[in-house]
Structure formats: C-alpha cells, structure tokens
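Extended Data, panel c. Modelled sequence:
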Amino acid sequence: MSMITPSARGKSSVKGGARKNETLRIYANPLPLLFLEPPPSRFRSVLGVLGLSFTEVVNPRCEGIFDPWTRSVWVTNARDTMVLWQRGFFGKGDLSRSEPSWLARQINIRKSGGKQLTSEEITAKRRAERQQFKLDRAAAIAAVAAEAEAIFEAEGRVIKPALSGPNIPSAATWRPSPSTVEIRDDTPSPGEDEEPIELEPLVDVEHLQLTLQEAFFLSWALDCLTVLDPHTAEPMSLLQIWRAFQHVHFPTPSLSSDLKPPLQFDNPFLINYVVYHHYRSLGWVVKGGIKFCVDYLLYKRGPVFTHAEFAMVVCPVYEDSEDQQASSLELHNSTPFAWSWLSTINRVNSQVQKTLILVYVTIPARSRLPLDILDSPACLEHYSVREVTLRRFIPARMRD
C-alpha cells in the first residue's frame, strides 16, 4: 500500500476564476470510461441489495498508431484526442506544452484582440510581465541611487538608498502597463488600396502523443485504446503490444519477427510501467516530470486543477546483483548516484513546493523465474515498489 497521501495544500492551490465551473464540467470524468447509472426505482433498489447492478459502462474505443522511433503512440483523431485528454489527462499535444491547443492558438492569432488565451499564451504573458517588473524595479533602484549620489556631491550628506518605498515597485504594488500585456498580432493589416488577403482554412496538424506506459494502461487496464501497427495499420493484439513496447528499448527497435533479442527483466518499459500503473491505480494523475529533473509528477486531480504535489525519481534495484552485470541494457539510476545530484534535485523541487519521492522498483532475479514469463503482463506481479520521502533540511524553518 502506498504511503503517499494527498496533502491539504492542494485545496489552496485550486485555480479560481470565472472559468472554474466550466473547468469542473469539462474535466468531470477521471477516466475515459463512463459509468451511467439508470434512473432509480424500487425494483433496482431490491436488486442492488442482492449485489446486482444495471450500471452501463460506455467505452469510447479510441485508436492510436504505434511509432517505435519516438517510443510513443500517436492519436490523430480529434474526438479521441479530446476524450483522452479531458478524461484523465492522458498524453500531451506534440505542438503544445500539455493540452493539445495548437489549433486554438492559431485561431486566436488570426483574430484581432482575441480574449481567450491558451495555457502557452498565458505562460508567455506572465513571463513578459515578470521580466518587465524586474526591469522597472531595477530602473527605480538605479534612479534612487543616482539621486543619493547627486545629494552627496552637492551637499556632502550620505544617504543610504532605500530598496523599498513608494518609489520602488514591489510585487504587491506593481501593475503591468498596457503595452506589456498587449497580445501582438503578427498578421499584417491590409492597406487602403489593397484587397484583404483571404487566408487559407486552418487544418489541425497536431496529434496527441501517448507514452508507452500510458498507451498500455489504456489498452490493458481500461481496454479503451486500440493500437495500430505502423506498417500494416492493422490492430495489434495485447501480446503484440506488450512485446513491441519492450523491443523498442533495444538498440535497433523493429516490429519484424526476425532478429529480435530476448526479453529481459530489467527492460525500461517494465520498470516505468510498474511505477505508472501503481500510482494510476491509486487514483493519481501521473505525468512526465522532465521539467523538474524527475521521472514522474503526481497530481491529485489533474494539471488544470492543482500543481503536482509529488515528484518521483524511479530507482531500479536488482534482486540479484549478477543480473546487472550480465544485462545488455543500461538502466537510469540503477547505480548509486552522488549526493550532490540528489541535493540538486531536492532543492529544485523544494523551491516549487513539491515533495521528492525515491521510488525503488525491485527487479526479480533471473535465477528464480523463467524468461518465458516475460511474454505476458503476468510477470508484473513479481515486481515490487518501495517509496522513500526526502525533505530538504532548512535550519531557519526546522529549528525544532
């Protein structure tokens, strides 16, 4: 059982605003599967006492194509993209930061003075405001210092320049100028004698990119994703998906039946899927954490509701040390890492209010299990997950 529990801090980080109710409506379902309850009746109440249920399970039946070179599954259908993102936050847009919003950004660029900003545009706007605030504050401090220098030269009095006051902007008092927050439209405006240029209709070229762990979870655990073979465009069976996702981690990924190396217990896909399935089954939203130098981030409800509470670093551990020496794969973090590296990651995540978790995945020994057990997901029961929580010691806050 996982020792990680959601903290009370998530309640205060819920994003407010006028769109809160609309956000709750759009992202009301935590999984692609929908469970529809029939209208209540006395007959169904009696059957409910007997343990019988008339709940209808609606399966969206999404499709994606496997790409061995990027080690991902591409979902190109717009309807499937929205279903997988809005119901569980699976995948990311290949042309976006997270939510597939490339088409919305392009439409917003074409519109003059569009008010609906995408997440990427909001981030760019905040960064521009933050940069302008730093420039204004530096200019105000320089002006105060120049004034103190002029008084010293004229009157001989020494005045210590103040770093705060009515003339020094602060984060609480500074307001961006209209030119700072203005959304620039790069589309040239036609002249008086020029005819308006008719723009070509926009075509959505963005696709949803699923990691191998997300794709297999949707295919195996939820049975709502069909993975297509990249060569034949035919649906792949569960065992074909299972083997293909492991083979792409070898030096020469291939879907052909020839020259395939034998499967190994320390395959990176197995290690990461054990962690992904473990936390997804506990109700967490698991997303990639490369931005914060970690493997995964855990969200209580999703990126649009709260910030991630936990940052996960996956650390494989061999049950038999001889298996590591005989392995042809080099696992990340399988060897002891330096304390300087650990302290760096811990400090980065502490600054953004995230708790660092070391997730140790025990790899079963080859000596006690046959290799043919890797031909099916039944081998996952032989892996175990342990968690170690790290907190950065801050003397000013932890004196007691």
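The first helix runs from residue 9 to 12. This feature is highlighted in the accompanying rendering.
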